[in-house]
Amino acid sequence: MFVTTSQAATQLGVSARQVRRAASTGRIVSGKAGVTHTFSQRHLRAIERTAHRGRDWSVTTQRAALDLLSARSTLGLSSTERSRLKQRVRNSPVGALAGQILRDRVSLRRAVNDSAKQSLHLTLAGELGLSAGGGLAVLVSRDAPRAARSARLGLDDSGDIAVVEGDELHREVLEALALYVYGDARESSAAASWIALAQGGV
Predict the structure, then answer these.
(1) Which residues pair with 190 in a beta bridge?
(2) What is the pTM of this model?
């Protein structure tokens, strides 16, 4: 479902001018219906869920945070940097953490047919109490664009498949983060609980 600029502004709690400016810079993905911008509800919900203040994390920090959440340790930082990052990861709201880690590594897609989506399964589905094959599907791959092409997934800002750039080692964390950001209310809630537990173990 798509909404207009004024509806998007109301949903995000900003002015229509700020929404148009964000759309022109690419911060908010938009389409065009004539001269009017249109925005995906799923994408707007993701922006709301991942709002954070401060500077964006570097790729090194993103990777180290994923290591901490997945394996409880990382070698990519000095001991002081690691200690500081552990504190940030433990104390960050789930949405801010998801926004920092998923920035520039996820795209929404749609399968060309039902069987293409059925072939994607969530590693965490059982653990989160989610049904297999329903809701949001997540594809994690080191070369996400190539994996999406191979699976015949087309770009779609309101799509029901999140394609995430990442390593197999981080699959569960990346699935949970994508479900939190792009999933429906039930998926997002289940993923938020899982991520909070992972944060507590860092």
Answers:
(1) none
(2) 0.84
CA distance 61 to 67: 10
pLDDT digits (tens, 9 = 90+) for 155-194: 887 788 999 999 999 999 999 999 999 999 999 999 999 9
Please state, as a whole number, how many other Cβ atoms lie within 10 Å of the Cβ of residue 37.
19
One-letter-per-residue 3-state SS of 23-72: HHHCCCCCEEECCEEEEEHHHHHHHHHCCCCCCCCCHHHHHHHHHHHHHC
Which of 83-87, 112-116, 148-152, 194-198 is predicted with the least confidence, judged by mean pLDDT?
112-116
User: Contact 46/136 with Cβ under 8 angstroms?
Assistant: no
Q: Are 137 and 117 in contact (CB under 8 A)?
A: yes
Cβ atoms of 175 and 140 within 8 Å: the answer is yes
Q: What φ, ψ does residue 157 adopt, rounded to 5°?
A: -60, -15
The whole-angstrom separation of Cα 118 and Cα 134 is 9
What gap in Å lies between CA 40 and CA 158, rounded to an integer?
5
Supply φ then ψ for residue 40, to 5 degrees: -75, 135
Strands 31-33 and 137-141: unpaired
